[in-house]
Structures are given as structure tokens and as C-alpha cells.
């Protein structure tokens, strides 16, 4: 059965950072959310409604009187939403929210919302520091409204100080945290992610096409759901997910040692990294010069098997591995499950465009002693939640 998408109301206010609301919308969609938009009239002067309609695939609410299909759009949207996020929240809209003023479609909708509300302020530093604004922030916090940012930095007006809109990824992550159940609270989750780099010399190395996106999505989802998360990461350009403890490594040997050490304090280990199977036996201690140190062969040696090592010492703990294959997917996954002694193998065919390295989606099968569960193609966040759902159910037994 296809999981129902989380529904987010994006309330866009009239500030120079309104264009960043488009990026927030895209980030939420990438995480599997359905997003609808309400805008103030001033916001539409910065970004047209057509942009948000094209991105969301739904009409944009700017008026109480001409919303397609509903005579009461503020009630329909408020009841539809699982969460609402205000981006960028101007001083004016914060004041209206604090005082319960509902004089346009956006503020009327927010007043009708019973769902969690997140506010991402964006304004001039002096407006943010104004005692009236700060009093409004205190009042809203006391009523349960969550805040993300503002950050400090150079503002659009040229001044420097607080008032800068928080990073769009941080805003999206905060929204997802509102939506997530805290059903993994108390569970200690260990994840590895990314490739490893096996040195040929100080400059060159052997690697693979892994980007780490899947492992980072698992770590982010686990933290969002309340788990205590440790992420052992090979070299990637990805930002550390909020609330995640990160250990950076480079080689397969370093990842092996870090994972086995961290496993002592874990309940569940999820091995999503694409660890090199082989490493140069004798890496040079200097850059090899091809004009006098011609390299026509590299002698390789096998790396230590991280998944097998964890499984050998897991006891009652759960160990989940990945099988990235290009042929005979399920047969290879089932063989790996039995040989390694894992509790679950997440199998994906990396020859498919929707599940290859670097894709924002994945199509996996969950292979365990209980059988095979084939999942649909989903955003990485959805795949991460499916894996964690499996782990939560077994960890509770």
C-alpha cells in the first residue's frame, strides 16, 4: 500500500527572501511531502503565484474569495495541513500572528490552523531586535509556535546582523521534524555512508560512484524520529544532518575500525556505505611521477568485511546491510543475507536510473529471513523511513 504523503502548508510573506520559499518547497517535495501555498499580496510582488502553482501543482491561495474549488480556502487549507511553515516570516506577519489578527488569506489560514506551525523569520536586523518583535516572538513561542533562525550575516539591505533567513535545508529539516513521529526515541542507531578512498599515493586513490545520499537520508530520518544517531561517513560533500553525531573517515580500514568501535554503543547498525572491496597493498608515500615511476599495475589486497564483522558480534542487536547490484538482484541479496548473517539486506539495482548512485530516489527490496518486500520507487527520505520502520518493529520484539 502506498504511504500517504505528509501535507505541508507553505505560507509565503512579502520579504526579499520570498524566492527562497521556492527552494523550501522543493526540499519538502524531495522528502516526499505534498505542499500547498498561501501568499500575501506583498509576497506575490517578489515571486509570482504562477511560480508556486507550477512547483506545487496546486492553486495558490492569495484571497479568501477566488480560490478554485472552495468558498472557504482558509478552513480547507488549515484542516488539510499536517504542518504549516511561514517563509520568510516578516515582522508584520509575526505581529499579526501574535495578536490574532486575520486580515488576509494567509493570516486567516494560520489563525485557523490546529497543526504544528513553524516560523522562519527574515527581516532587517533593527526590525528583528525591536522590542515589539521580540515580545511577539516570546508570545508565539509560549503558544507552541516553533522557530528556525534567523541567522546572522549580511542582509539584503546591506547591514550586518540577525534577521537573515535560515538556510533552506535547515528550514525543510525543521518542518520534517515537526511531521515525524518520535517512535525511535531511546534507540541507538549507527549508520555508515558514502564511498571510501583507497590511496595509491598521497594524491591518487581508488574509489567508487557512491555519493552517500542514501546513508545520510537514513541518519537524518532516524534523528528526526528521536533516535540517538552516529554517522560514520566516507568522503562526501554532504552536510551533517541535524542532531547527528558524525565521524569522518577516508579509507575502508578507517571505516572498519570506526564502525566496530561505535557498534559497542548501538542497538541497530545500518551499513549503507559503498566500502571498497580492495585497497592498494603498498601505497606510495609520495606522488608518483609517471616520467620515472611508471605505474603499469597496482597490487591489491582485500579489505576487512565491515558487515560480517558487525554480524559476528551483534548478539540480539540488529544489523542491516545493503546490496547494490547490476544483475540477479534478489539472488545476490539473499546470498549476502545468509553469508554475512545479517538481519536484513536492502537490495537495489544501481543500473536503473531511479536507483543509481547519486539519484534522489531509490527502488529497493527488503530481503530478510521472513521473505522479500519489494518497495515502490520513492524519494530517499521515504526509503529511509521504510528501513527504519522495519528496524523499529524488530527492535521492539
Automatic annotation (TrEMBL):
Task: Note the InterPro entries from the entry.
Answer: CoaB-like_sf, CoaBC, DNA/pantothenate-metab_flavo_C, Flavin_trans-like, Flavoprotein
Give start and end of each Flavoprotein domain: 7-177
So what does this thing catalyse?
N-[(R)-4-phosphopantothenoyl]-L-cysteine + H(+) = (R)-4'-phosphopantetheine + CO2; (R)-4'-phosphopantothenate + L-cysteine + CTP = N-[(R)-4-phosphopantothenoyl]-L-cysteine + CMP + diphosphate + H(+)
* UniProt binding sites for CTP: 277, 287, 322, 336, 340
Where are the stretches annotated Phosphopantothenoylcysteine decarboxylase? 1-188
Entry-linked Gene3D superfamilies: CoaB-like, Flavin prenyltransferase-like
Q: Where are the catalytic residues?
A: 157
- Keyword annotations of the record: Decarboxylase, Flavoprotein, FMN, Ligase, Lyase, Magnesium, Metal-binding, Multifunctional enzyme
Manner of cofactor binding, per the entry note: Binds 1 FMN per subunit.
Describe the location of the DNA/pantothenate metabolism flavoprotein C-terminal domain by residue ranges. 184-391
Question: A Gene Ontology MF term for this entry?
Answer: phosphopantothenoylcysteine decarboxylase activity
EC number in record: 4.1.1.36, 6.3.2.5
The coenzyme or cofactor needed here is: Mg(2+); FMN
Pathway the protein contributes to: Cofactor biosynthesis; coenzyme A biosynthesis; CoA from (R)-pantothenate: step 2/5; Cofactor biosynthesis; coenzyme A biosynthesis; CoA from (R)-pantothenate: step 3/5
Residues covered by region (Phosphopantothenate--cysteine ligase): 189-397
Q: Which domain of life is it from?
A: Bacteria
Pfam families documented for this protein? DFP, Flavoprotein
Query: Which family does the record assign?
Result: In the N-terminal section; belongs to the HFCD (homo-oligomeric flavin containing Cys decarboxylase) superfamily. In the C-terminal section; belongs to the PPC synthetase family.
- What is the annotated role of this protein in its UniProt record? Catalyzes two steps in the biosynthesis of coenzyme A. In the first step cysteine is conjugated to 4'-phosphopantothenate to form 4-phosphopantothenoylcysteine, in the latter compound is decarboxylated to form 4'-phosphopantotheine. Catalyzes two sequential steps in the biosynthesis of coenzyme A. In the first step cysteine is conjugated to 4'-phosphopantothenate to form 4-phosphopantothenoylcysteine. In the second step the latter compound is decarboxylated to form 4'-phosphopantotheine.
* Name by which UniProt lists this protein: Coenzyme A biosynthesis bifunctional protein CoaBC
Tell me what organism the protein belongs to. Thermophilibacter gallinarum
Lineage, opening ranks: Bacteria, Bacillati, Actinomycetota, Coriobacteriia, Coriobacteriales
User: Which gene underlies this protein?
Assistant: coaBC
Amino acid at each position: 500500500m502506498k504511504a500517504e504523503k505528509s501535507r505541508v502548508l507553505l505560507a509565503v510573506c512579502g520579504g526579499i527572501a520570498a524566492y527562497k520559499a521556492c527552494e523550501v518547497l522543493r526540499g519538502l517535495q524531495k522528502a516526499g511531502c505534498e505542499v500547498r501555498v498561501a501568499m500575501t499580496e506583498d509576497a506575490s510582488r517578489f515571486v509570482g503565484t504562477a511560480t508556486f502553482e507550477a512547483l506545487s501543482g496546486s492553486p495558490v491561495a492569495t484571497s479568501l474569495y477566488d480560490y478554485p474549488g472552495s468558498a472557504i480556502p482558509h478552513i480547507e487549507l488549515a484542516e488539510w495541513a499536517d504542518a504549516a511553515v511561514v517563509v520568510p516570516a516578516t515582522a508584520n506577519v509575526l505581529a499579526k500572528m501574535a495578536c490574532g489578527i486575520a486580515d488576509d488569506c494567509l493570516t486567516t489560514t494560520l489563525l485557523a490552523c490546529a497543526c504544528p506551525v513553524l516560523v522562519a523569520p527574515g527581516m532587517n536586523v533593527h526590525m528583528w531586535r525591536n522590542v515589539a518583535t521580540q515580545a511577539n516572538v516570546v508570545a508565539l513561542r509560549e503558544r507552541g509556535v516553533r522557530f528556525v533562525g534567523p541567522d546572522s550575516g549580511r542582509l539584503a539591505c546591506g547591514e550586518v546582523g540577525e534577521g537573515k533567513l535560515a538556510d533552506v535545508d535547515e528550514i525543510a529539516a525543521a518542518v520534517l521534524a515537526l511531521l515525524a513521529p518520535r517512535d525511535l526515541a531511546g534507540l541507538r542507531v549507527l549508520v555508515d555512508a558514502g564511498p571510501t578512498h583507497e590511496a595509491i599515493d598521497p594524491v591518487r586513490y581508488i574509489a567508487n560512484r557512491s555519493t552517500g545520499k542514501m546513508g545520510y537520508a537514513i541518519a537524518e530520518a532516524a534523528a528526526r524520529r528521536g533516535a540517538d544517531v552516529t554517522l560514520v561517513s566516507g568522503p562526501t560533500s554532504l552536510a551533517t544532518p541535524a542532531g547527528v553525531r558524525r565521524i569522518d573517515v577516508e579509507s575502508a580500514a578507517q571505516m572498519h575500525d570506526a564502525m566496530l568501535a561505535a557498534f559497542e554503543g548501538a542497538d541497530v547498525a545500518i551499513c549503507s556505505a559503498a566500502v571498497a572491496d580492495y585497497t592498494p597493498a603498498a601505497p606510495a608515500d609520495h606522488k608518483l611521477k609517471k616520467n620515472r615511476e611508471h605505474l603499469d599495475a597496482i597490487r591489491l589486497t582485500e579489505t576487512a568485511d565491515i558487515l560480517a564483522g558487525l554480524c559476528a558480534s551483534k548478539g540480539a542487536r540488529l544489523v542491516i546491510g545493503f546490496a547494490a547490484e547490476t544483475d540477479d538482484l534478489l539472488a545476490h541479496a539473499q546470498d549476502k543475507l545468509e553469508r554475512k548473517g545479517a538481519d536484513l539486506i536492502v537490495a537495489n539495482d544501481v543500473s536503473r536510473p531511479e536507483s543509481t548512485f547519486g539519484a534522489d530516489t531509490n527502488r529497493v527490496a527488503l530481503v530478510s529471513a521472513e521473505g522479500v518486500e519489494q518497495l515502490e520507487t520513492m524519494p530517499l527520505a521515504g526509503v529511509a523511513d521504510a528501513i527504519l520502520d522495519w528496524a523499529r518493529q524488530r527492535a521492539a520484539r
